[in-house]
Amino acid sequence: MSLNLRRVILAILAVTGAYTGVWAYFAPRHWHAHFPGFGFSWLPQLGPYNEHLSKDAGAMFMALAVLSLIALRSVRSDMVARITGLVWLTFNIPHLIYHLQHLHMYNTLDKVLNVVVLSLLVIASVALLLPVARQRVSADRPARVH
Fold it and tell me: Does residue 144 have a pLDDT over 70?
């Protein structure tokens, strides 16, 4: 994996966590009624509104966003990236499995979007487990010192 791809993945995960987390925590009823936004609404089909559950989900997503921002700041550290990927994966795999088991509640477009978006988040999490490819130094070019 390249360092730039790692940056992009971490930024996407940070934005995902912040977008969902801030909305769910600070406007939980609106989040439940309108998530993911953009004219879609995926939560009411899954059960009634619960403020405690919505705020807990928001706090968890904000924590994932903070972890992703820390990893972005330490983007060269394979260990920090792997920990971040593993934490996101710990959430994303059960989250995807749950939604795969409840697709019958959605129309075709919502089914496809749920599977695609949640699968991409799993793939992004797995990608963070990969080390950054080290650049080889050619014999005629000295190594850069940082």
Answer: no
Instruction: Count how many Cα atoms sit within 13 Å of the Cα of residue 137 in the half-sphere of its side chain.
Output: 7
Q: Which residues pair with 37 in a beta bridge?
A: 40
**Is the model's pTM score more than 0.85?**
yes
The pLDDT > 90 percentage for the chain reads 90
Nearest to 98 by CA among 121, 123, 115, 84: 115
Q: CB under 8 Å to 30, separation ≥6 — which residues?
A: 23
Peptide bond into 94 cis (omega under 30): no
Strands (E), 1-146: 36-37, 40-41
How far is the C-alpha of 75 from the C-alpha of 95, rounded, in Å?
26
Tell me how far apart the alpha carbons of residues 97 and 43 are, in angstroms, rounded to a whole number.
Answer: 16
| Residue 22 pLDDT exceeds 80 | yes
How sure is the predictor about 134, in pLDDT bands with cuts at 50, 70 and 90? Answer: confident
Say how far apart CA 62 and CA 70 lie, in whole Å: 12
* Of 56, 67, 61, nearest in space to 28 by CA: 56
